[in-house]
Design a protein that fits this description.
mainly alpha; 9 helices
């Protein structure tokens, strides 16, 4: 059992860790504003599952193996960086296509204006899986999470009792905090999205988030080992 005094320190720290801006935040904000709150909430659930994977890896010692292997850590690092860059390039390409369509519309062809999907409660299973997997891969391919789960979680554990249940408890708290933060965030941004449904705003948002994802990916790829 984790001591209460440890939990009183861990929960606020974990909440701050979850709320800090990063690739997870950028993905959910972008998805909610462009595709809608249901899509953003699906991505949030994927992020929560990614946290579960990191927790399990730390509990089984897999994180320790990755953290102490230059090769394995580099593979994870570059895989995560490539994925973020791919997300960024896709967003930039979509923004460029939207911009071209807006230009044609301004030129006089009103039928060329791209339609922004209406805010809706419904989402197809295919769309849900796509957003869920984006959230999952964005989180699970982040090598910094491996180090965080490996170094921070043990500091709040009691070595005199089995570590497995303690890992699951602390990881479950982080996953729960993730859902408590990102699911309402997706809802709020999905509602605000209705105020910014113009094609120009959507194009600007795609370009900005694309640049952010590429920046995250390049920063990750060029980061030095531990």
């Amino acid at each position: 059992m984790i001591p209460l005094e440890s939990l009183l320190v861990f929960v606020p720290m974990a909440a701050l860790f979850v709320m800090l801006p990063g690739p997870d935040f950028a993905l959910i904000a972008k998805t909610s504003l462009i595709e809608g709150r249901s899509h953003g909430q699906a991505a949030a659930m994927g992020v929560a599952l990614g946290i579960g994977v990191h927790t399990t890896a730390a509990m089984l010692g897999i994180s320790a193996i990755i953290a102490h292997s230059v090769f394995l850590f580099s593979v994870l690092k570059y895989a995560g960086a490539c994925y973020l860059v791919c997300l960024g390039v896709r967003a930039l390409r979509y923004g460029a296509a939207s911009s071209a369509a807006v230009t044609r519309t301004v030129g006089g062809d009103s039928r060329s204006q791209p339609s922004v999907p209406e805010a809706t409660e419904q989402i197809s299973m295919r769309q849900w899986r796509k957003c869920f997997m984006q959230g999952f891969l964005t989180n699970v391919l982040n090598p910094k999470a491996v180090i965080i789960f490996l170094t921070i979680l043990p500091q709040f554990m009691d070595p005199a009792v089995p570590l497995g249940p303690q890992f699951l408890t602390l990881g479950g708290i982080i996953s729960g905090l993730c859902l408590l933060w990102y699911v309402p965030l997706a809802y709020v941004l999905g509602r605000v999205r209705r105020l910014f449904e113009s094609a120009r705003f959507q194009t600007w948002l795609q370009r900005c988030t694309g640049a952010i994802f590429i920046a995250f990916g390049l920063k990750l790829a060029t980061a030095h080992a531990r």
